[in-house]
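Our consortium's second objective concerns turning raw sequence data into structural hypotheses that experimental partners can test. To show how far this objective has progressed, the report includes one record in full. It was chosen at random from the queue rather than selected for favorable results. The single chain below, 782 residues long, was entered without modification.
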Amino acid sequence: MSSDEDFLLESGLVPSAKLAQKGWEAAIRHTPDLFEYPIPKPPNEWTGREKVLDDISKDWEDFDHLVVGLIGFGGEGKTSIVRSWVHNRLLYEDSTLPKPEAIFYWDFYESRSIDRFFESATAYLGARDQLEEVKFAHERANLLAGMILTGRYLFILDGLEAVQYQDGEDYGLLQNPDLKDFLTYFASGEHESFCLITSRTPLIDLIDYITYIHRDVNRLKTKDGRELLRYFLENNGTNEQIDQVVEGWDGHALTLSLIGAYVRGVYDKDLSRVDITGLEDIQPLEISGDSQHKHYYNRVNQIVRSYNEYLTPQEREFLKVFSAFRIPVSRQALDQVLKADPEMVERLSHYRILRLDSKEEGYTAHPLIRQYYLDQLKNKPEEAKIVHRRIKEYFLSENSKTFKQNPSLQDLMPFIEAVHHLCEAGDYHEAYRILSELIDQDKNYVLTLQLGAYDTRLKLLSEFFPDGDMLKPPCGNQLEQYFVLKEIGFCLMALEQLEEARSFLERGIRVAEEMSDTNKLVHAYRDLSSVYVYLGELAQASNIIRKAANFDQDLTEPHQALNSLALESWIAYLQGNLEKAKRLFEKLEDEQCKLEPNQPYLYRSRGIFQADYLRRTGRIQDAKYVAEANLRISRNKRWLERESRCHRILGDIESESENDADARIHYSQALKIARSISHRPILIETLRAQGVFLTRQGELEEARNDLNEALSYATKGVYRINEANIHVGLGWLCLKEADQFPEKSKEKRSQAKAEAERSLQMSKEMGYYWGILDSEKVLEAI
């Protein structure tokens, strides 16, 4: 690797240098098809914009410019500019511009799924065979960070505003942290790849990077607007008449295209037969934020309303139903759902109302046009429900009901869309059934446990809230409300949003109380207690789990009581109340034996908690027996999360017993599984444990990579117990580096002291006994 490639992989800009390295290696071995993600050609009426096209070309040739944002109001022509630059400048056969090795194009209005974005991008650049192993969106972002180092790749992200906040204090910020991380990697690295973005909203997350260039896309010049209209009107109309229209509509590209197609189709290109000179009261824009977009949206509405006067009833109904689809409408859907006359579709395309999607496999409409007809549909709620139910039936047709045992996100797309349309129709009970049976596949939780698609699942669960307002109660019966709230809390924990997770779990508790369902209540209390453990608020975690214990006598599911007792034992262990922990674990063994007399060891999370407790309290052989028994059970049950934790514990046991070869195997297995499932704390703890092991082995560079990656995740997600443990590990690493590099001994010892003192301070604040003990050991060694 060159020094430029080493820069990103070793600079700490990406949490996982190892994953970035994997991405680099995969991309080196792969030659992507330049046209696998085809970019549609610009519209035939394309004209002007020479200055911005020249600017993009200069940016492409300037290796200090890595990300360019084309920012402007909806309908100003940003997408057409990108398409024109690619086809008429970059790929034009006589162009002197250097050609990219690959072009990855993504339209966020065709798919807003961040999980699908990362799945598609990593597969395209060469990591298709790693998708099963690397499932987290944040891990795929790390893979891509390594991939972009290997060549001259062009990323085009069209319509990014679909995944940005559109108002409030977060205006312009990206909604998804993994997408934000990827774009900041892109802006940070010394590489030759290039990212071109279109958005209505400023890219606030990138504004501080000198490699990011913000380019405004404003109105068309009068001359360019005249040329655009001339495409439709040919020699009809004087320049003065046409210029009046251009100025009356403030040179807005989409509006002028609609006007031109309208006059051509309805008035035989005769501009004098219709008064469309624009709004008489147009004033200079002095408003900001979303109000500006509404201003232009109202202008487009005026033109579309004019169209409606001349469309047939059949065409109007078609467009209302068409607008209810949120993904490109396939030709099959046009036939089965909309019963569309091909000539009508061609005519509406001629009017510039419809357009082919990026792969020319389905039809879409400009977001502003689609919104107009969607509003028309929403104004008739009962009609809208019928439409959404028809679309649901299409997605649940016989061809869509066959699903693979290990489906991809694309395989699940019909069911995800069906849930959306059922919720839009108000059929929340059926939506819940589809989610449970066809997406979760009866508690297999495919989206999360198998695909790691937490962002997709979170968006899917948000469909159950009226108008998408997650501050309101979700729709459905109380059991369904409980499920939605609890699952959102679970997703937010995985997405490093522990405070928000706490809020949703507390709401789930209130629903369980209203249901008088003791089993659900205890389960929710336990999950909430777990959040407090992650946050390092051990006293509060202990209080909550004791609340759960008060309901033990009322439980009809005895395993609920065992699981709560296990968590209470674990919290006592973390707080250093070892006598209490010992007593509770013994009680737990007795209670489990009554329920399952043939099971000699604690298992599930109970056994894993106990194995770690036994290891830390010096009962190494007992810990090994319990961990090995749980490993066998977890493998048989395909409990990947627990299998990873067992391997990690066995790695710790073998390391402490100086069986280094066996320890290395267990850590490797633990990490492989941890990266393939969706549980951030397990990944953090595995990285920390392996980092400590590698420190003892003298493999200091690898150790630092693991510990730094773990620290990045722990601090970002506020997993404070984990963070304290990692600082201890870094303290020992610095001491080892001081011994290995005598010339840096003083500096490294000072760093070791800082790491240990940081852990000690955090551990005292949390009441975390083992963090205090381990920090003091580092300080004693210094």
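The partners drew two points from this record. Residues 745-766 form the longest helix (22 residues). Strands lie at 67-71, 102-107, 153-158, 194-199, 212-216, 329-330, 355-356, 362-364. Both points have been shared with the crystallography group to help prioritize constructs.
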